[in-house]
Design goal:
Elements: H1 16-23, E1 40-44, H2 47-55, E2 59-60, E3 74-79, E4 82-88, H3 96-109, E5 115-124, E6 137-140, E7 149-151, H4 154-159, H5 175-185, H6 190-203, E8 256-263, H7 271-281, E9 283-287, E10 299-307, H8 318-335, H9 340-350, H10 362-387, H11 393-402, H12 409-412, H13 415-422, E11 431-434, H14 441-457, E12 463-469, H15 480-493, H16 500-509, H17 518-530, E13 534-540, H18 547-560, E14 565-570, H19 575-580, E15 586-588, H20 593-605, H21 615-629, H22 633-644, H23 649-657, H24 663-675, H25 680-695, E16 700-701, H26 702-708, H27 726-732, E17 737-740, E18 745-748, H28 751-759, H29 761-766, H30 771-780, H31 793-802, H32 806-817, H33 824-832, H34 834-847, H35 852-855, H36 857-862, H37 865-871, H38 875-884, H39 899-905, H40 909-917, H41 931-938, H42 941-949, H43 964-971, H44 974-982, H45 997-1003, H46 1008-1020, H47 1027-1033, H48 1036-1041
Parallel strand pairs: 1-4, 1-5, 5-10, 6-8, 7-8, 8-9, 11-14, 11-15, 12-13, 13-14
Antiparallel strand pairs: 2-3, 3-4, 5-9, 6-10, 16-18, 17-18
Length: about 1050
C-alpha cells in the first residue's frame, strides 16, 4: 500500500539549513561562457519572433564581444541543458539571401554550433489533408523527395501556374528529425506548449497578450477565389459569406503539423497557387528565409501560422504565432541529446558521490542548479497537466471583460465579506452568496476573485486562491471530481515545491495511465492547505451542478470549509444548498441601483442612438429601468437592449412604457416580439434557433447551429446559400441569444430562458421541443450523405469539415426522437436507408474516438437497423423492427456485434429483455466475447444481474478462454467483480494466456487494493495465488508495493 507523508510545517518553521538550500541559487556567481560553449544556433526574421525566443530562455548569459567582421546582434542564454545563441535578421531585410549571410556570420563566430533552428511565423496552407488553423505550428519534416524545406520561384509559380523548384536542399542533422519523430510518437500535448507560454507571461506580464490565445483575433479562411480589396486595411468589410466552412475545434490549443515547408523569394499571397501546391506537393506552410540556411546551416524550421498565404493578410496573429513556435522549439531542445560538455552536466547530476552544490567551483554549482531547476520545472508542468486540464480561467476571463468598472464595491465592503476575508486562523466558516437568477452573482464572483488575487500576490506565496465556475451548458463543469481536480491544479501551480503526496501519486499512477481519483484528490488538497497560511476557494453557480453531483459536492465543501476560506454562490431556494449553509454567514445578492446606473449609462453611451447626449431622456430611461429591474441585472440588460433597438425617441418611449418587472413576462414579451416580425423567414430562423438551443444535449459551436439552421422543408440537399451567418441569428433572436467569443459557442442569454421555454406553454409554442428531432432527421436524410461509408479517415474528416453539425446529429439524433411517436415513420425511413445508415454509424463511431475497427467502412456497412436502434435505446422502433420480422434478431456486424450485445453494453435492460424474449442468443459472441463478457468489461451491474438471473453460466468462456470475471478484473470493475463472486464465479479459472482474474488485474496495473482483494478471495478459496508468477508481471515499483 502507498504510504503518504508530507511536511506539515509552514515555511517559516523550516530549519535554517532548509532555507539556505532553497535560496542559494539566487546568490551564486554568474559563470563566464566562451564562444565554444554554444551548440545551438537560433535565427529569427522579425523582432517579434526574437522577443518570443528570448522569453523562452531559462537563463540569459552575458554578451560576448563580436569579431570585427560580424555585425550580428546576439542574445546568449541557456534553454534546458543547451547553450543557445540567438540572432535576428537586419530590420527590413528579409529573404533567403539575408538569412544565409546572418547564418554564415553566426557559424564563423560560434564554431561549436551543431545545428540551427529557424523559428518564427509563416503562412499556412490548409487543405483537405491538413486542417491548419491560425495559431497552429508547422514543423519541417523530410520526405522521400525533399529535405523538409522546398525552395521555389514565387513569380513563376504565379505566372506559369507551375511549381518551379529552384534546387534541392539538405536535410537537417539527424538529431533533429529523431527528436521530431520522438515527439510525434509520444503525441506531444499542446498543454506543454501552453505551459511554457504561461511561464513566459508570468515572467513578463507585459507580454501576456502575445502569449495568450484570444478570440478577439478572428480566424477567417476565405474561399481561394475571393481576393481581398486592397483599399481595405482589415477584413472586417470582406464578404463573410465567402468564408470556408470549417467545424469548430473542441479546444483552443495549437495543433502541430509535420511536413514540407516551401521557401520562396517573396511572400506567398495567392490562395489558388497555395491550394494547388498544397494539393500536389503536400506543402503545409510558406515562408521566405529557410531556403537560405539549409545547405550551409542545416536547420529545423518551425513556423507558427499567422495567416493563410492569401491576400487576406493581417498582423493580428503574428505575435501569438511566434510565441507558440518558440515554445515548440524549446520542447524540441528538451528532447535533442546534448553535446559532450552538456552531457557531462547530466552525468554529474546522476552521480551522488559528486556534490557540486558544495563544490569549491561556483561554475559547477550553478550548472547543476540550472539542470535541476529545468528538470523540476518540466516535472511540475507534467504533474499539473495530469492533475487537471479543465479550462478554469475561460469563464473568469469572459466575466472580467463584461464587468463594469467600479461596480460591486458594495459586496467587497460588506461586513460579512470583510470578516470572512480578515479572519486569521482556522477553523473557518463558508460564506453563501445567494441571489435570484439574473442578479449578477457570477460577475460578482469574478470581482471577489480579482480582489483575493491581489491579496495573495502580495503575500509572498503564503496565501493561494482557487476558483471554479459551474456552467449548466457544460455538464463536466458540475462534476465533483472535475471541480476538486481543478482546485488542486490551481493550488499546486502556486506551490514550490509541490507536496510530496502529489509527486508520489503522480509517480505511482501516471505511469499506469491512470488519473487521480476522488480520495487521492482530497488528500492532495489537504497537503496543499497545510503548506500555506491561508487558502481561498470561490465556487460560482453551485445550483447549476447536476442534482446527482451536488450531494457529493456539498459534503466535500463542508468537509474543507473549516480548513480554508470558501465562498459559494447559488440561487437561494434549492433545499439541499439552503440546508447545507443554513447556519453559515450569507450575503443576499441583488443588483444595486448604483451598479445598474453605471451599466445603463455606459451601455447607452457606447451606441450611436439619436438620444445619446439627451441627458434628461437618458436619465428617464435609467430611472424607469432601475425601477422595474427589482434587483435583477438580467432584466436591466434585456430592457436596455429593447429600448436601444428602437429607431426613434418616440418608439423608445413606447417600449419604455411597456417594460415589466417580471422576468418570465419579459421573456414572453420578447418572444412575442420575435414572433410578430413581419418577415416570416426571420421568425422561422429565430424560433428554430431558440428551440435548438433550448433542447440540445451539449453546447453548440456557432458554426454548428448555423449549419443545422440551413435545413429547409422538402430539401434533398443542404444548400449553403440558406446557411445564415452568426450575426444574422443573433439579430433575429432579439437579444435572447448570445455568442461566447472565448469558446465560439452560442447559447441562450441565461439558463432561466431555457427553463422558461421548456416549461411555459407559450415558450413551448414558440420553440417546440420536437424541433431538434425533426431537424436532425431531415439533416441526416439529405442526399449529401447518400453515398454510403467513407473509404478512409481523410474522407470522414472532410465530411465533418464540410458539414459541422453532422457529428452532433449522428451522436444525439436518437435521443431527440425517442418518445415522439409521430417521428417513428421518419426514423424507420432513415434506418432502412443503407447508405445513410452506414454514414451515420461511421461518423458516430469515429467522432466518439473509438479504434479504427469500429469505424472502418466494413464495420459501418455491416450495421443493420436493429443494431443501430440499440445504440440509441429506441425501444418502440426496435419492437416494430422485431414485429416485422425482417431482420434476424441475432444479425451481427462484421465484428460480431448483435443488438443484444449492444443493448447490454449500453446498460439497457428494457431492450435486452425484449430481444431475449424474441429469441436473441445470450451466448452469442462478437470479437470481444458474449453479452456477459461485454457487460463485465463495461461495468454495468444492473444488466449483469438481469443476465445472471436468466441462469446464464457465470463462468462462460470467450474465444480467449476468459470468463466474465477476467474481463471485469482487467478493467477494475469492482462492483461487477463482487456481483460475479457472489453468484459463484470461479476465482481460479485460467485463460488461454495462462492468466487468472488476478493476473489480468495485475497485468493491466489495477489499484493495489483491488489486486489485494482478489488475492484475498483466492486465499479464501484455498487457491495458490502464484505470487512468483505475478511478480514477473509487475514493474519494480509495484513489486515494492506488494
Amino acid at each position: 500500500m502507498l504510504n503518504f507523508e508530507y511536511d506539515h510545517r509552514s515555511k517559516r518553521e523550516l530549519p535554517a539549513g532548509d532555507e539556505d538550500e532553497r535560496s542559494h541559487t539566487s546568490t551564486r556567481r554568474a559563470r563566464r561562457f566562451s564562444y565554444d560553449d554554444y551548440t545551438v544556433g537560433w535565427i529569427c526574421a522579425l523582432p517579434l519572433e526574437m522577443n518570443a525566443a528570448k522569453a523562452m530562455l531559462d537563463e540569459k548569459h552575458n554578451s560576448l564581444p563580436n569579431p570585427i567582421d560580424d555585425d550580428n546582434v546576439y542574445t546568449l542564454g541557456q534553454m534546458g541543458f543547451h547553450n543557445v545563441v540567438m540572432t535576428c535578421l537586419p530590420s527590413g531585410i528579409y529573404g533567403t539571401t539575408s538569412a544565409a549571410l546572418v547564418a554564415n556570420k553566426m557559424q564563423s563566430t560560434f564554431r561549436s554550433i551543431r545545428f540551427g533552428l529557424m523559428v518564427g511565423i509563416g503562412g499556412g496552407a490548409p487543405s483537405k489533408f491538413a486542417d491548419i488553423r491560425l495559431g497552429d505550428i508547422v514543423v519541417s519534416k523530410p520526405t522521400e523527395n525533399f529535405g523538409g524545406v522546398v525552395p521555389y520561384d514565387y513569380g513563376k509559380a504565379i505566372q506559369e501556374g507551375v511549381f518551379k523548384r529552384t534546387g534541392t536542399l539538405n536535410k537537417p542533422p539527424q538529431a533533429l528529425p529523431k527528436a521530431v519523430s520522438s515527439l510525434q510518437a509520444d503525441k506531444l500535448k499542446s498543454s506543454k506548449i501552453l505551459a511554457y507560454l504561461s511561464e513566459a507571461a508570468a515572467k513578463d506580464p507585459d507580454m501576456t497578450d502575445e502569449f495568450t490565445f484570444s478570440d478577439c483575433r478572428e480566424d477567417w479562411l476565405f474561399e481561394a477565389q475571393y481576393e481581398h480589396n486592397d483599399s481595405e486595411t482589415t477584413c472586417n468589410g470582406c464578404d463573410k459569406s465567402r468564408l470556408v466552412t470549417r467545424s469548430a475545434r473542441s479546444t483552443r490549443d495549437p495543433v502541430i503539423h509535420y511536413g514540407l515547408i516551401a521557401s520562396g523569394n517573396q511572400v506567398m499571397k495567392h490562395a489558388s497557387t497555395r491550394d494547388r501546391l498544397a494539393s500536389e506537393y503536400g506543402i503545409l506552410c510558406f515562408e521566405m528565409e529557410a531556403a537560405g540556411l539549409m545547405d550551409h546551416f542545416p536547420s529545423l524550421v518551425i513556423r507558427g501560422v499567422c495567416d493563410y498565404s492569401d491576400s487576406h493578410k493581417s498582423k493580428t496573429w503574428q505575435a501569438y504565432a511566434a510565441a507558440v513556435a518558440a515554445a515548440y522549439a524549446k520542447i524540441i531542445l528538451s528532447v535533442v541529446p546534448v553535446t559532450q560538455s552538456s552531457r557531462a552536466v547530466a552525468t554529474t547530476i546522476a552521480k551522488p558521490s559528486v556534490d557540486l552544490a558544495n563544490s569549491d567551483f561556483p561554475e559547477g554549482r550553478g550548472t547543476r542548479n540550472l539542470a535541476i531547476d529545468e528538470a523540476a520545472r518540466m516535472q511540475k508542468a507534467n504533474i499539473l497537466t495530469w492533475l487537471s486540464t479543465f479550462h478554469y480561467r475561460q469563464k473568469y476571463t469572459d466575466l472580467c471583460k463584461r464587468r463594469m468598472k467600479d461596480t460591486g464595491q458594495w459586496l467587497l465592503n460588506s461586513d460579512t465579506f470583510q470578516q470572512w476575508l480578515s479572519k486569521g486562523q482556522s477553523p473557518y466558516r463558508p460564506v453563501w452568496c445567494c441571489g435570484d437568477p439574473g442578479t449578477g452573482k457570477s460577475v460578482l464572483a469574478s470581482l471577489m476573485i480579482d480582489h483575493i488575487m491581489a491579496i495573495c500576490s502580495s503575500a509572498a506565496r503564503s496565501k493561494a486562491i482557487a476558483y471554479h465556475f459551474v456552467d449548466h451548458l457544460d455538464e463536466a463543469s458540475g462534476n465533483c471530481l472535475t471541480i476538486l481536480r481543478s482546485i488542486l491544479h490551481q493550488l499546486s501551480e502556486q506551490l514550490d515545491p509541490l507536496p510530496m503526496v502529489i509527486t508520489t501519486l503522480f509517480e505511482d499512477l501516471y505511469k499506469k495511465g491512470k488519473e487521480i481519483g476522488f480520495d487521492e484528490t482530497k488528500l492532495a488538497i489537504r497537503a496543499c492547505i497545510n503548506m500555506l497560511d491561508q487558502v481561498f476557494v470561490v465556487i460560482d453557480a453551485l445550483d447549476e451542478a447536476p442534482a446527482q453531483e451536488r450531494s457529493s459536492l456539498l459534503s466535500t465543501i463542508k468537509e474543507f470549509s473549516s480548513q480554508c476560506k470558501i465562498i459559494v454562490t447559488s440561487r437561494p431556494h434549492l433545499d439541499d444548498i439552503s440546508r447545507t449553509f443554513h447556519d453559515d454567514p450569507s450575503i443576499d445578492v441583488t443588483a444595486q441601483d448604483s451598479d445598474l446606473q453605471l451599466y445603463l449609462r455606459s451601455r447607452m453611451s457606447s451606441t450611436c442612438h439619436s438620444f445619446v447626449g439627451n441627458e434628461d431622456f437618458m436619465d428617464q430611461i435609467i430611472h424607469t429601468i432601475i425601477e422595474h429591474a427589482h434587483g435583477l441585472f438580467l432584466l436591466a440588460v434585456l430592457h436596455i437592449d429593447n429600448v436601444l433597438n428602437e429607431p426613434t425617441i418616440g418608439d423608445a418611449l413606447v417600449a419604455l412604457s411597456s417594460i415589466s418587472s417580471n422576468l418570465q413576462l419579459t421573456f414572453q414579451t420578447m418572444l412575442k416580439r420575435i414572433a410578430n416580425q413581419q418577415n416570416q423567414n426571420r421568425v422561422g430562423l429565430a424560433t428554430r434557433a431558440l428551440a435548438v438551443l433550448a433542447y440540445v444535449k451539449r453546447p453548440l459551436q456557432a458554426i454548428e447551429l448555423c449549419d443545422i439552421l440551413s435545413v429547409r422543408p422538402n430539401q434533398t440537399h443542404l444548400n449553403s446559400l440558406f446557411r445564415p451567418s452568426c450575426a444574422t441569428v443573433l439579430d433575429c433572436c432579439g437579444g435572447l441569444v448570445v455568442l461566447d467569443k472565448n469558446t465560439s459557442t452560442i447559447h441562450l442569454v441565461h439558463y432561466t430562458l431555457q427553463e422558461y421555454i421548456r416549461t411555459d406553454p407559450f415558450g413551448q409554442e414558440i420553440a417546440p421541443p420536437t424541433t431538434v428531432a425533426r431537424l436532425c432527421l431531415e439533416y441526416l436524410g439529405m442526399d449529401d450523405f447518400a453515398s454510403g461509408s467513407f473509404a478512409n479517415e481523410q474522407e470522414i474528416f472532410t465530411c465533418i469539415m464540410s458539414y459541422p453539425f453532422y457529428p452532433y446529429a449522428a451522436r444525439w439524433w436518437g435521443h431527440h426522437v425517442n418518445g415522439d411517436k409521430s417521428l417513428i415513420g421518419s426514423t424507420l425511413d432513415l434506418l432502412w436507408s443503407s447508405p445513410h445508415r452506414a454514414t451515420l454509424a461511421q461518423v458516430f463511431m469515429y467522432d466518439a474516438g473509438l479504434r479504427e475497427e469500429y469505424w472502418c467502412a466494413e464495420e459501418a456497412n455491416s450495421n443493420n437497423p436493429l443494431t443501430v436502434a440499440a445504440w440509441y435505446h429506441m425501444h418502440e422502433v426496435s419492437r416494430i423492427l422485431l414485429d416485422d420480422d425482417c431482420i434476424p434478431v441475432d444479425s451481427a456486424t462484421s465484428l460480431g456485434t448483435t443488438a443484444l450485445i449492444r443493448s447490454t453494453s449500453e446498460n439497457d435492460v428494457t431492450l435486452a429483455k425484449m430481444l431475449i424474449e424474441r429469441g436473441a442468443d445470450p451466448y452469442g459472441c462478437n470479437w470481444y466475447g458474449s453479452s456477459l463478457h461485454c457487460v463485465a468489461e463495461s461495468g454495468h451491474c444492473e444488466v449483469m444481474e438481469y443476465l445472471l438471473n436468466l441462469g446464464l453460466d457465470v463462468d462462460s468462456r470467450d474465444h480467449h478462454g476468459r470468463t466474465p470475471l477476467h474481463c471485469a478484473a482487467q478493467r477494475g470493475r469492482s462492483g461487477v467483480v463482487r456481483l460475479l463472486l457472489d453468484r459463484g464465479a470461479s476465482i481460479d479459472v485460467i485463460s488461454n494466456a495462462g492468466l487468472t482474474p488476478l493476473g489480468e488485474a495485475v497485468l493491466s496495473q489495477q489499484d493495489c487494493d483491488f489486486c489485494f482483494f482478489l488475492m484475498e478471495q483466492m486465499a479464501m478459496a484455498g487457491t495458490d495465488v502464484g505470487l512468483v508468477g505475478l511478480l514477473a508481471l509487475l514493474d519494480p515499483d509495484q513489486v515494492e508495493d506488494v
